[in-house]
Design goal:
Rossmann fold, alpha/beta, seven-stranded mixed sheet, globular
Length: about 200
């Protein structure tokens, strides 16, 4: 019902969407997972033509990808270093027949951005700096990883072709190369839309 409504452009409240997840995952939602309304706006900007390949950098439980896949004609790829979250995302996609989405269990430093057309980033690396709300205890935060990952993403984005689109949410902009121009912002500056010149 949730995905049917999304496909029909009917608004879904976050609490309703989060019913797809176990209680532990729901508790982390406000801090770590993209709100449905943000996911719809971001996906709409990133998918400027059918079959665009969109990479979610640090997909978590796949919420952005699932919403984007249900509301656009893009193909969504979520890379996530936690195997349990990738498994959960895949399970939800399969159960609800969301076929234009794929979840990849990998570290971002093993992903080549040349395989994708546009990118979404919801400050995935900040958990290495702010440890007040950990996702789990399996991956230990390290301050230096914030810069390592941010530098990798910036380098990969810098290699993308002209007109590549990027959306950032709650970002420190550490990962944005100078080759990207800020096109506009929303949500009091928290949601930012970029394009490579």
């Amino acid at each position: 019902m949730i995905f049917k409504s999304l496909k029909q452009n009917i608004d879904i409240e976050d609490d309703k969407f989060n019913e797809l997840y176990p209680v532990r995952i729901k508790r982390l939602s406000k801090r770590h997972w993209t709100p449905v309304v943000i996911a719809k706006i971001a996906a709409d900007y990133l998918v400027d033509k059918p079959n665009q390949k969109i990479l979610d950098i640090g997909a978590g439980v796949g919420k952005f990808c699932l919403v984007g896949a249900a509301t656009t004609k893009g193909i969504f790829y979520g890379v996530e270093q936690r195997a349990s979250l990738t498994k959960l995302s895949k399970k939800i996609a399969e159960k609800h027949n969301i076929n234009n989405v794929e979840f990849i269990h990998s570290n971002i430093t093993e992903i080549s951005f040349s395989d994708y057309d546009a990118f979404y980033f919801y400050n995935s690396f900040f958990e290495n700096i702010d440890t007040s709300c950990p996702i789990d205890k399996k991956i230990l935060p390290k301050n230096e990883l914030f810069l390592t990952y941010s530098n990798y993403v910036r380098d990969q984005l810098n290699k993308t072709p002209k007109n590549t689109r990027l959306v950032t949410y709650w970002s420190t902009w550490e990962e944005i190369p100078e080759s990207f121009d800020l096109k506009y912002t929303a949500c009091d500056g928290l949601l930012n839309f970029w394009k490579k010149r």
